[in-house]
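Hallway conversation turned thread

IA: we were arguing at lunch whether anyone had actually written out DUF4212 domain-containing protein end to end. Turns out nobody had. So, for the record, here is the sequence (85 residues) and right after it the C-alpha cells. Reply here if something looks off.
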Amino acid sequence: MADKSSSNAYWAANVRLIKICLVIWFVVSFGFGILLRPMLAGIKVGGTDLGFWFAQQGSIIVFLILIFVYAWRMNKLDAEHGVEE
C-alpha cells in the first residue's frame, strides 16, 4: 500500500463501513427502541412488546453482531488492500 490513491481508497472504504454500522445500530436502538416503539407495541416477543425488546435486548444483540461483521469485513478489506496483519 505504497501509493496515496490506494491509501485513500482503503480509508474511504473503512469510513463507509463504519458509517453503515453506525446507521444500522442507530436505527435498531433509537429507531425501533424509542421512535417506533408505539407502533411495535402490539407485537409480543418473549412476554413483552417488540419495541421494549429492541430497547432492552435487540440493540445489544445487533451491536454484538455488528462487531463480528465489522471485524470480518475489515479483515477482508485489509487483505484487498495488502495491509493484513
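OS: looked through it. The chain has a mean pLDDT of 88.
IA: good, adding that to the notes. The chain is about 80% helix and 5% strand.
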